[in-house]
Amino acid sequence: MSLSHVWVQNGPIKTNNKISLGWQVSSDLYGDNKTHLYASWTSDNFHNTGCYNLRCPGFVHTNKRTYLGAPMTNISSYGGTTFDFVTYIYMDPKTKNWWIQIDGTDLGYYPAKLFSNLTSADKVGWGGRTLTPHGSLSPQMGSGHFPDKNLYDACYFRTMTFENSSRIRFGPERYQTEKYIDKPKCYDLTYYGNAYEDAPGHLLYMLEFGGPGGKCDDKLVHF
Protein backbone atom coordinates (compact mmCIF):
# COMPACT_ATOMS: atom_id res chain seq x y z
CA MET A 1 0.00 0.00 0.00
CA SER A 2 1.09 3.57 -0.66
CA LEU A 3 -0.94 6.65 0.23
CA SER A 4 -0.98 10.40 0.63
CA HIS A 5 -3.25 12.07 3.18
CA VAL A 6 -4.17 15.05 5.30
CA TRP A 7 -5.48 14.36 8.80
CA VAL A 8 -6.78 15.84 12.04
CA GLN A 9 -6.28 14.20 15.43
CA ASN A 10 -6.57 14.68 19.17
CA GLY A 11 -5.53 12.83 22.30
CA PRO A 12 -2.63 10.64 23.49
CA ILE A 13 -1.35 7.91 21.20
CA LYS A 14 -3.18 5.00 22.90
CA THR A 15 -6.57 6.71 22.61
CA ASN A 16 -5.85 8.82 19.54
CA ASN A 17 -8.95 10.14 17.75
CA LYS A 18 -8.15 10.68 14.07
CA ILE A 19 -9.67 11.34 10.63
CA SER A 20 -7.61 11.02 7.44
CA LEU A 21 -8.45 11.92 3.84
CA GLY A 22 -6.47 11.46 0.63
CA TRP A 23 -5.59 8.95 -2.07
CA GLN A 24 -4.42 5.37 -1.77
CA VAL A 25 -3.06 2.49 -3.85
CA SER A 26 -3.73 -0.89 -2.23
CA SER A 27 -4.24 -4.15 -4.11
CA ASP A 28 -5.43 -5.85 -0.89
CA LEU A 29 -8.25 -3.35 -0.36
CA TYR A 30 -9.35 -2.72 -3.94
CA GLY A 31 -8.14 -5.72 -5.94
CA ASP A 32 -6.18 -3.55 -8.38
CA ASN A 33 -3.22 -1.16 -8.58
CA LYS A 34 -5.28 1.93 -9.33
CA THR A 35 -5.31 5.11 -7.26
CA HIS A 36 -8.44 5.42 -5.11
CA LEU A 37 -9.99 8.18 -3.03
CA TYR A 38 -9.97 7.15 0.62
CA ALA A 39 -10.75 8.27 4.16
CA SER A 40 -10.35 6.60 7.54
CA TRP A 41 -11.29 7.18 11.16
CA THR A 42 -10.57 5.85 14.65
CA SER A 43 -11.31 6.81 18.25
CA ASP A 44 -8.58 4.65 19.84
CA ASN A 45 -5.67 4.57 17.38
CA PHE A 46 -7.28 1.62 15.53
CA HIS A 47 -7.10 -0.76 18.50
CA ASN A 48 -10.83 -1.54 18.46
CA THR A 49 -12.46 1.16 16.32
CA GLY A 50 -12.21 2.60 12.84
CA CYS A 51 -11.56 1.52 9.28
CA TYR A 52 -10.90 2.65 5.72
CA ASN A 53 -13.80 4.02 3.67
CA LEU A 54 -17.06 2.14 4.32
CA ARG A 55 -15.55 -1.12 5.57
CA CYS A 56 -17.21 -0.58 8.96
CA PRO A 57 -20.18 1.48 10.21
CA GLY A 58 -19.52 5.14 10.90
CA PHE A 59 -19.26 7.38 7.85
CA VAL A 60 -22.53 8.94 6.63
CA HIS A 61 -22.37 9.26 2.85
CA THR A 62 -24.30 12.20 1.33
CA ASN A 63 -22.83 12.66 -2.16
CA LYS A 64 -24.56 11.12 -5.22
CA ARG A 65 -21.66 11.60 -7.66
CA THR A 66 -18.68 10.02 -5.95
CA TYR A 67 -17.88 7.83 -3.00
CA LEU A 68 -15.06 6.75 -0.71
CA GLY A 69 -13.00 4.12 -2.48
CA ALA A 70 -13.77 5.48 -5.95
CA PRO A 71 -10.93 5.14 -8.50
CA MET A 72 -9.33 8.44 -9.47
CA THR A 73 -9.10 9.03 -13.22
CA ASN A 74 -6.67 11.98 -13.42
CA ILE A 75 -3.29 10.58 -12.44
CA SER A 76 -0.05 12.57 -12.55
CA SER A 77 3.03 11.25 -14.34
CA TYR A 78 6.65 12.11 -13.60
CA GLY A 79 7.85 14.58 -16.19
CA GLY A 80 4.35 14.78 -17.67
CA THR A 81 1.00 16.27 -16.74
CA THR A 82 0.45 16.99 -13.05
CA PHE A 83 -2.98 16.84 -11.43
CA ASP A 84 -4.05 17.80 -7.94
CA PHE A 85 -7.28 18.09 -5.97
CA VAL A 86 -8.50 19.97 -2.90
CA THR A 87 -9.01 18.05 0.34
CA TYR A 88 -10.74 19.59 3.34
CA ILE A 89 -11.71 18.19 6.75
CA TYR A 90 -13.87 20.42 8.91
CA MET A 91 -16.13 20.26 11.94
CA ASP A 92 -19.69 21.63 11.93
CA PRO A 93 -19.73 24.01 14.94
CA LYS A 94 -23.35 23.14 15.78
CA THR A 95 -23.52 19.37 15.38
CA LYS A 96 -19.80 18.73 16.02
CA ASN A 97 -19.88 16.26 13.12
CA TRP A 98 -16.72 16.08 11.01
CA TRP A 99 -17.26 16.60 7.28
CA ILE A 100 -14.89 15.66 4.47
CA GLN A 101 -14.82 17.58 1.23
CA ILE A 102 -13.20 17.08 -2.20
CA ASP A 103 -12.81 19.96 -4.65
CA GLY A 104 -15.39 22.03 -2.79
CA THR A 105 -18.02 19.28 -2.63
CA ASP A 106 -19.02 17.49 0.58
CA LEU A 107 -18.85 13.69 0.46
CA GLY A 108 -20.38 13.09 3.88
CA TYR A 109 -19.52 13.20 7.55
CA TYR A 110 -18.32 11.27 10.58
CA PRO A 111 -20.86 11.73 13.42
CA ALA A 112 -19.53 13.31 16.61
CA LYS A 113 -20.72 10.28 18.61
CA LEU A 114 -18.03 8.12 16.96
CA PHE A 115 -15.27 9.92 18.84
CA SER A 116 -14.23 10.07 22.46
CA ASN A 117 -12.07 13.19 22.19
CA LEU A 118 -12.44 15.08 18.93
CA THR A 119 -14.41 18.23 19.64
CA SER A 120 -11.27 19.95 18.34
CA ALA A 121 -7.93 18.87 16.92
CA ASP A 122 -4.66 19.35 18.74
CA LYS A 123 -2.67 18.36 15.65
CA VAL A 124 -3.11 18.41 11.87
CA GLY A 125 -0.80 16.76 9.40
CA TRP A 126 0.11 16.15 5.78
CA GLY A 127 2.24 13.36 4.37
CA GLY A 128 2.47 9.82 3.07
CA ARG A 129 2.72 6.22 4.20
CA THR A 130 3.58 2.81 2.81
CA LEU A 131 2.73 -0.66 4.06
CA THR A 132 4.32 -3.93 2.97
CA PRO A 133 4.75 -7.49 4.26
CA HIS A 134 7.68 -7.72 6.66
CA GLY A 135 10.93 -8.46 4.86
CA SER A 136 9.72 -7.41 1.41
CA LEU A 137 10.64 -4.29 -0.55
CA SER A 138 8.64 -1.17 0.24
CA PRO A 139 6.76 0.44 -2.66
CA GLN A 140 7.29 3.88 -4.08
CA MET A 141 5.70 6.85 -2.35
CA GLY A 142 4.24 9.61 -4.49
CA SER A 143 6.02 9.84 -7.84
CA GLY A 144 8.78 7.55 -6.62
CA HIS A 145 11.24 10.45 -6.54
CA PHE A 146 12.73 12.42 -3.65
CA PRO A 147 11.88 16.11 -3.17
CA ASP A 148 14.34 18.09 -5.28
CA LYS A 149 13.16 21.72 -4.99
CA ASN A 150 11.92 21.44 -8.57
CA LEU A 151 8.27 21.83 -7.67
CA TYR A 152 5.89 19.04 -8.63
CA ASP A 153 8.58 16.42 -9.35
CA ALA A 154 7.71 14.71 -6.07
CA CYS A 155 4.32 14.27 -4.41
CA TYR A 156 3.22 17.56 -2.88
CA PHE A 157 0.74 19.53 -0.82
CA ARG A 158 0.23 23.19 -1.64
CA THR A 159 -1.85 25.98 -0.14
CA MET A 160 -1.75 24.16 3.20
CA THR A 161 -3.95 25.72 5.89
CA PHE A 162 -5.69 24.93 9.15
CA GLU A 163 -8.45 26.73 11.03
CA ASN A 164 -8.45 28.19 14.52
CA SER A 165 -11.47 28.25 16.84
CA SER A 166 -12.78 31.36 15.03
CA ARG A 167 -12.80 29.48 11.69
CA ILE A 168 -9.98 31.65 10.33
CA ARG A 169 -7.48 29.83 8.11
CA PHE A 170 -3.74 30.06 8.57
CA GLY A 171 -0.73 28.53 6.90
CA PRO A 172 1.53 26.52 9.23
CA GLU A 173 4.41 28.65 10.48
CA ARG A 174 7.71 26.88 11.01
CA TYR A 175 7.62 27.25 14.80
CA GLN A 176 4.34 25.29 14.80
CA THR A 177 5.70 22.39 12.79
CA GLU A 178 7.64 19.18 13.16
CA LYS A 179 8.45 16.53 10.60
CA TYR A 180 8.88 12.79 10.93
CA ILE A 181 10.68 10.52 8.45
CA ASP A 182 11.14 6.83 9.22
CA LYS A 183 13.74 5.93 6.60
CA PRO A 184 15.51 8.87 4.91
CA LYS A 185 17.26 6.48 2.53
CA CYS A 186 13.88 5.47 1.12
CA TYR A 187 11.70 8.58 1.55
CA ASP A 188 12.10 12.24 2.39
CA LEU A 189 10.05 15.37 3.06
CA THR A 190 10.85 19.05 2.51
CA TYR A 191 8.70 21.90 3.79
CA TYR A 192 9.11 25.20 1.93
CA GLY A 193 6.86 27.31 4.13
CA ASN A 194 5.59 30.37 2.27
CA ALA A 195 8.70 30.67 0.09
CA TYR A 196 6.77 30.36 -3.18
CA GLU A 197 3.97 32.31 -4.81
CA ASP A 198 1.02 30.51 -6.37
CA ALA A 199 -0.12 33.74 -8.00
CA PRO A 200 1.13 37.32 -7.72
CA GLY A 201 0.81 38.38 -4.09
CA HIS A 202 -0.50 35.01 -2.91
CA LEU A 203 1.95 33.05 -0.76
CA LEU A 204 1.99 29.30 -1.15
CA TYR A 205 2.54 27.08 1.88
CA MET A 206 3.96 23.94 0.31
CA LEU A 207 5.76 20.67 1.02
CA GLU A 208 7.12 17.88 -1.17
CA PHE A 209 7.58 14.29 -0.08
CA GLY A 210 8.09 10.74 -1.31
CA GLY A 211 10.79 8.48 -2.61
CA PRO A 212 11.70 5.24 -4.38
CA GLY A 213 11.14 2.86 -1.46
CA GLY A 214 13.26 -0.27 -1.21
CA LYS A 215 14.40 -2.12 1.90
CA CYS A 216 12.34 -0.05 4.32
CA ASP A 217 9.57 -2.25 5.84
CA ASP A 218 6.47 -0.23 6.96
CA LYS A 219 7.40 3.43 6.78
CA LEU A 220 5.84 6.86 6.74
CA VAL A 221 6.71 10.50 6.41
CA HIS A 222 4.52 13.20 7.82
CA PHE A 223 4.48 16.85 8.71
From TrEMBL:
<dbReference type="InterPro" id="IPR004314">
    <property type="entry name" value="Neprosin"/>
</dbReference>
<dbReference type="Pfam" id="PF03080">
    <property type="entry name" value="Neprosin"/>
</dbReference>
<feature type="domain" description="Neprosin PEP catalytic">
    <location>
        <begin position="1"/>
        <end position="217"/>
    </location>
</feature>
<protein>
    <recommendedName>
        <fullName>Neprosin PEP catalytic domain-containing protein</fullName>
    </recommendedName>
</protein>
<dbReference type="InterPro" id="IPR053168">
    <property type="entry name" value="Glutamic_endopeptidase"/>
</dbReference>
